[in-house]
Amino acid sequence: MPGRSEAEIVWAFQMMIGTMLYIMADGGRAKHLSGGVCDPEDVEGTMRLILPLLLHGMRGPEF
Question: What is the pLDDT of residues 16-33, one digit of tens each?
């Protein structure tokens, strides 16, 4: 991550891990709130949506 300080890289990694843990520990909340449309147990669907968001956050101009 050229141009990023060590602190920015560490915080970005921590935020990425935190997001992933939150999704994995969902307990059905997203599925309930979305009427079944968002299902963290659908790993492929979840990764298809969350990876671009996480990567954009890490590569973007600001955190």
Answer: 999 989 988 988 899 999
